[in-house]
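Problem 3 from the worked examples.
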Amino acid sequence: MNSMKQDSPNHIRKGQLAQWVNILTDSQKEEVLQMATPLLKLLNYPLNSQIDTLPELPEKLPENISLPDGKVVLLKPSNH
């Protein structure tokens, strides 16, 4: 079986926490945070580069979260 690096030599993931902070441009970071802040907060993930360990996940997740653009992301499938 090939490694990720062999299959995708340009793959940049190194398995480091908050690696996105060092790789993305400032405008890319701003765009990511605009889209992902509700989910990051829900998962107790820090919104900056000050992270040493992965956060503890909440015991109970809501059924959905609202995004800044007014869209709603369903986290649990409906029973309809």
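Problem 4, a separate protein:
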Amino acid sequence: MLPNKHQSGHMAEIAIVGAGLMGRLAAVSLAREGHKVTLIDKDDINGTNSAAYAAAGMLTPLGEAMHCDANIVEMGFISLALWPTLLSNLASYTYFQQQGSIMVAHEQDHSELLRYKRFLQQHYANHAVQELDRQRLVNLEPELSRHFNQGLFLPEEGQLGNRKLLLALEEEIKTLAVEWLTVSNVSAIKQVNNCVELTINDEQRTVELVIDCRGTGARQAVAQQAMPLNDLRAVRGELFQLFAPDVNIQRPVRLMHPRYQLYIAPKTHGYFVVGATEIESDDSSPMTVRSAMELLSAAYSVHSGFAEANIRQHISQLRPAFSDNQPKISIDNKVIQINGLYRHGFLIAPVVLAQLLSAVNATLSAEQSVHSSYQHLLPVNFSHEYIH
């Protein structure tokens, strides 16, 4: 959540490098606590080059469960409970719903659906999973029953409006008098005399604490002299934003397939996000023909109304990931680095934020340990073997 008072009582001058999802959440939280916050980003204020902008905002821990570790799933369920309070503290409108998600498969891929059902029964029997026949599909999502006669319903899952949230955080940051340096490059981060010296657009600035939320911008090839993360890689993701007023789907839908999982995330006013490819590449060039054909043909196979949809955007973006696909938070004296949220940024962000604020408390209090209820899920690391 976004607390109002810093536990250490020490108000500090803090620079946050990176204004994606975590950078904005951290800026709002720390400014509310009374810290003097500077937010620095190489992008403009709209954040259109961030991984958070090119996302669907799906909060589907069970939907991700077969492709991630158990701690990610647990953080996802905890975050689902935290998101409503976090969003209610923002003045601007944000979109959040928790009406469940649906998994479907075409007849030839039915074995993929069965395999997922068995996995969830074996590993997550304490969470609700409902089998759907055609009539139950009619009751939940009538238009899906035109092409499918069975599926799985995961009633605990939900979604939020990722771009609406970025805008709401932008408005909150403006009201909190945070200094926001856009289109600004941090070329060096150096710790000197218990402070941190930043080189920003060839000018030096000294602060008490730096929080590094640069995502793929912290890779060795990009960060260079600015405390790069050597184990960090980029994973390419691609998606479409479609305007499809003839499609009435209310819940996130996953189409099971042997090669990929297609998701369809309904937004408001007839908009949908369709994704996502997952390619081990640091190529941020426009979407490939192959990806476009696969995503759009799969969307059409779910609902024929997508044939007449308008393509409003096609986006390719890079997601940051470590070799184990786990998020990491590390404290190196007066620099806190948080990275590797991979494809789970919105899913686990509230827990990551809570751990980040615990790391700030520890750093400003000169402690060498972090005590929090989430330490077993996402440890704050005082060892730096995976960086530099």
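Solution to problem 4. Residues 345-364 form the longest helix (20 residues). Residues 1-7 have pLDDT under 50 and may be disordered.
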